[in-house]
Amino acid sequence: MGRIDFKRTSGMIGTAMLLAVMAACAPDREPEPEIALEELKAEYPRLGTEPLPEPEPNDDANLDEVPEEVLETVTGEATFYADKFEGRRTASGIPFRQNQMVAAHRGFPFGTVLRVTNTRNDRSVNVRVVDRGPFSTERTIIDLSRRAAQELGYIQAGRAPVEVEVLEWGEGVG
Fold it and tell me: If DSSP codes are grouped into helix, strand and coil, which group holds residue 107?
């Protein structure tokens, strides 16, 4: 008499039982006609491919109406956010948008308005602190949105020497 392989036998019996149960539970209705692939794609867009809503400006979004008095000045290097951060929540709680004039700083309160000047070409922009960082190197003192970096003219270089002037202190904590 031969040996019985219980693992193999129980696996086959289990599979047969599962198929029997599935057949017994199958609905007694006709299958729905196939829907065109394009209709399915339109109904169920892939996660991350749907367009992001444009951010709505808030009451303090006009950075041109800030006092010109400089409260503090620091110098160092600026970098800009990678595209992968688009839409992610910042440390202040708002979603990050590359097309807004925003920045990340290690210590300035959220809401602080800064004038950032590229010392290579003398271009300046006003930005609002909404996030923490940068944490890459000691000499990098600020991360800017892509729009701010474009206006300062350092997208190709990736970083630039800057002078950062505090124009208005924010009230945010963090």
Answer: coil
Model pLDDT for residues 102-126, shown as the tens digit of each residue = 999 998 999 999 999 999 999 999 9
Superfamily in which the 72-168 domain is placed by CATH: RlpA-like domain (2.40.40.10)
Taking the C-alpha atoms of residue 131 and residue 1, their distance in angstroms, rounded to an integer, is 76
Residue extents of the structural domains in the chain: 72-168
Euclidean distance between CA atoms 16 and 57, whole angstroms: 62
Which alpha helices (DSSP H) does the chain contain, by range?
A: 6-25, 37-43, 146-152
Query: What is the CB neighbour count within 10 angstroms for residue 172?
Result: 16
174 Cβ neighbours under 8 A, 6+ residues apart: 91, 92, 109, 110, 132
